Amino acid sequence: MRMVIQSIWVSIDGFYEGPKSWDLNFNSVSWGPETKAIADQENRSAGGLLLGRKTYEGFAKSFPSDKSDFAAVLNDLPKYVFSNSLRDATWQNTTIVRGDAVKAVRSLKRGTGKPLFIFGSGEFSATLTKHGLIDEYRLLLTPVVVGAGTPLFRPSRKAVAMRLVEARTLKSGAVLLRYRPRKTRIRLRE
Fold it and tell me: Candidates 3.30.450.40, 2.60.120.260, 3.55.40.10, 3.40.430.10; correct CATH number of 4-187?
């Protein structure tokens, strides 16, 4: 069974983007050789990318024409974009997945191979989290309080207990946190 891993940078107040869509400037606080090495390693260990439409469109604007080694790895990976509205996928090796995303991800997970990664794609990942389809969360906790923006985790009546797999402090002050959901679900009081 393939793993699904969400890898995302978040502020210490829990936002993966600032008040406006694609407002990711706060991540510059943590960018450097260590974070680049982490991103390179994740890209090389990925068997494919799972993307929501908005993230796909953002990535597809820059990576296909980017000549860096970093972009070359992403360009070569199989990409699955989950959207009922996207008409065409021009980024190489991209498949548009329409219909029931939960069913489609379950099917992809039943395959074999390297892990499938989700970079960004907050709304899409919220759906997968709700259905217990993300096997690991890799959060790069960036030492910034953004104050407002889009939270990574959405309100829910069920809490998801997590098990810490790794915690690594980086020279920038960021902390790489790897969590895996526990089987136990906790019902919150209403």
Answer: 3.40.430.10
